[in-house]
Amino acid sequence: MTLSRCVAINHTVFVTAPGLAGPGVQRLEQAGCRILFLTGSQDAAEVERVMAGNQISAVISRTVDLSASAIAACPSLKVVSKHGVGVDNIDVEACTRRRIPVYVTPGANAASVAELTITLLGASARKVAWMDREIRANRWPRVQDGLQLAGRTLGLVGYGHVGQRVARIALAMGMEVRVFDPLLLLAGLRPSTTDIIVARSLAELLPVSQILSLHVPLTPRTRGLIDAAALDLLPSGAILINTARGGLIDETAVVEALKSGRLYAAGLDTTTDEPIHPDRFDKKRKKLNGK
């Protein structure tokens, strides 16, 4: 869909989020497009309602699910574009049956995700969230058990646009960086700097990763990639960072590893189900223990 055609036909573009960056909005409006955003529950049900109630030509998909029923409810839909690269929240098969192309935008938010990764890493290593809660509760903890990141080993699972940016920042901070990415191995490629060590397998990467950061898409092969067995391979007191997809980790196993002290901290930007129900992990833990 070109912008010139958008002017002539006056397409409706649906963004499955409450907003879009100013330059994007401006470009669509200049092209004569009508733009719709999520305004209510901001969930898959609202997406379906909007799709069923409007003549939508294009969807810019963020993180909310774009289901087969939503796609079926909108006969006018012509194209879907992911704001990012992971399409696990889009029913691609339903689009394929309708011959609706699904595009991705590699690198579009790589800088933002890399910055967030480093932010979560620093906050986890220094217990920023816990310290904030303590001070707000009028307590003044004198603990001095924060972790210095310089000199520690960062293991990156995935070495795409985000992973590469995270690696550069981590090296500048004085960290050692190791990566595992099957695509690197298959293509016979290596990072552009010799400062980064490439692991031949996840099992090789985990035991040396004092910090483990995930940067891979969610697929049937990567779902539950970091489970209890994987967590047990990490050094004691490791930090887990996930700014990719919640389904990459076994969240119950992560909770147990945090409670036992196997993990020092976890910095999570995403979870399997969003929003998280307050009693979710308690229920999972009871089921796991047979109670």
Describe the protein's architecture and organization.
The protein folds into two domains: 3-103, NAD(P)-binding Rossmann-like Domain (Rossmann fold, 3-Layer(aba) Sandwich), CATH 3.40.50; 110-288, 3-Layer(aba) Sandwich (Rossmann fold), CATH 3.40.50. Helices cover 37% and strands 16% of the residues. It has 13 helices and eleven strands. The strands form two sheets. Strands 8-7-6-9-10-11 form a six-stranded parallel beta sheet. A five-stranded parallel beta sheet has the order 2-1-3-4-5. Helix 2 links the parallel strand 1 (12-15) and strand 2 (34-37). Helix 6 crosses helix 8 (161-172). The termini are far apart.
SSE topology sketch:
Layout: H1 3-9, E1 12-15, H2 22-30, E2 34-37, H3 44-53, E3 58-61, H4 68-72, E4 79-82, H5 92-97, E5 102-103, H6 110-125, H7 128-136, E6 153-157, H8 161-172, E7 176-180, H9 182-187, E8 196-198, H10 202-205, E9 211-214, H11 228-233, E10 238-242, H12 251-260, E11 263-268, H13 280-288
Parallel strand pairs: 1-2, 1-3, 3-4, 4-5, 6-7, 6-9, 7-8, 9-10, 10-11
Helix pairs in contact: 6-8
